[in-house]
Specification:
A seven-stranded antiparallel sheet has the order 9-10-11-15-14-13-12, with helices on both faces. A four-stranded antiparallel sheet has the order 1-2-3-4. Strands 7-6-5-8 form a four-stranded mixed sheet, with helices on one face. Helix content is 25%, strand content 29%. It has five helices and 15 strands. With 224 residues, the protein is α+β, with helices and mostly antiparallel strands. Strand 12 and strand 13 form a beta hairpin. It has two domains: 85 residues, PH-domain like (Roll); 111 residues, no CATH class. Helix 1 packs across helix 5. The longest helix is centred in the last third of the chain and has 16 residues.
Length: 224
């Protein structure tokens, strides 16, 4: 199963089943009957082998969950829609105070990340325009990532041209009617994710998930 199809299924009101884990517009069911409604969830944190839900629920183990690479971004997408706080992995660290923030380059998004989100192999291109941080291509689809130092216009133009997307960095927007471009501000860094070659209804979910992954790996300075 691919992420866009899973999101469309939820949008139709049908839960998506991943073995013992079920995800729907109403909430999450797992571990033989454990249930958490979105309205009762304060925050979620995705770790390598489990998802932790604030509020006293048992962790959701990802071990043995079929299509976990789809289940996790689906949960994050629905959580963002419901205004649930998406906490970063504790492994994501900040640079020491006073040091200049810098993007992590090609480690912000990997071939494995992009391939998992799309559901087929995507290859990183070695030769690409200078201003583009990374480009991935496969099955007629191209994903590009740009990272640069934020400027004042980065707050003005996206607000006028796009719709706000919660849960990504400090603020994020999907641009234009095609929604193939997502711009986010993460600390002093502006990030742009572009998805080309997918049907219109599939672009935004893929751009959002990739931006969530990338935003969690952009290094930002602590204030001190």
């Amino acid at each position: 199963m691919r992420l866009p199809g899973a999101i469309e299924q939820c949008d139709r009101g049908a839960p998506v089943q991943f073995g013992d884990l079920a995800v729907s517009q109403d909430g999450i069911t797992w571990d033989g009957g454990e249930y958490a409604a979105w309205r009762d969830i304060r925050s979620i944190r995705v770790l390598p082998h489990e998802i932790r839900i604030a509020g006293g629920w048992k962790p959701i183990s990802l071990d043995g969950v079929p299509d976990a690479c789809v289940a996790v971004p689906l949960i994050q997408e629905l959580a963002a829609r419901q205004g649930v706080q998406l906490k970063r992995d504790l492994a994501v660290s900040a640079v020491p105070a006073g040091q200049r923030a810098r993007p992590l380059g090609s480690t912000v998004l990997s071939e494995a990340d992009v391939s998992q989100v799309l559901g087929w192999p995507m290859r990183a291109l070695v030769n690409h325009p200078r201003r583009v941080t990374a480009v991935f291509r496969g099955e007629g689809v191209t994903v590009s990532l740009k990272l640069r130092r934020a400027v004042a216009l980065d707050r003005v133009l996206p607000r006028r041209l796009g719709r706000s997307v919660p849960g990504i960095g400090d603020e994020a927007w999907l641009l234009f009617k095609s929604e193939e471009v997502l711009v986010a501000r993460v600390g002093a860094t502006t990030m742009q994710v572009r998805v080309e070659g997918l049907p219109p209804t599939e672009r935004a979910p893929v751009a959002i998930r990739l931006a969530q992954l990338a935003a969690a790996r952009v290094v930002v300075p602590t204030v001190g």
